[in-house]
Amino acid sequence: MNRRSGMGGRWPLTMVVTLLGVLLAGGCLAASGDAARGARLFSGSAAMSNGGAPCLACHGFAAAGFGAAGGASFGPDLSNLNEDYGDDGVAEVLAALPFPSMLPIYAKRPLTEQEQADLGAFFAATRTGALPGVGRLAVTVLAALVIFVGLIGLLGQRRLRAVRQPLVEQARNRGGKQV
Known about the structure:
There is one protein chain. With 179 residues, this protein is mainly α. The chain is built from 6 helices and no strands.
């Protein structure tokens, strides 16, 4: 008899069904999204299945390098969407598109479940630091400053030797006499 289960190594059907239900409820077996396809859907380089407009038509996404939608600023920048709403909130927003300005655009052209998953994966993938935060920016600037000062120091040291060497040799040629 197996010590773990106490049932000869078999899980009863109810335990399997319960575990499957928990996994489904937690979204663990939900369709996974493709972040690369989500980026294409966002930018419009891949068409929405039902003919909806790409997100970039109204929204910017500076964290992914999409800028301010080429001048279009109707909707907000979505760089912090995942941080603001979380994975579940983003999924709900993509499923319902509850914003009044989006209803006329997507009412007859809803996102498919796969498009929702792909866009959700794209937002989640860009959540962690595509834009330098204040701390990251400070570290980057500090590192650049250290490199710059180091290069100036190396170049200055070489110049110092180039100037000093002739002076030292000139003093030796005079026999060490000070003038």
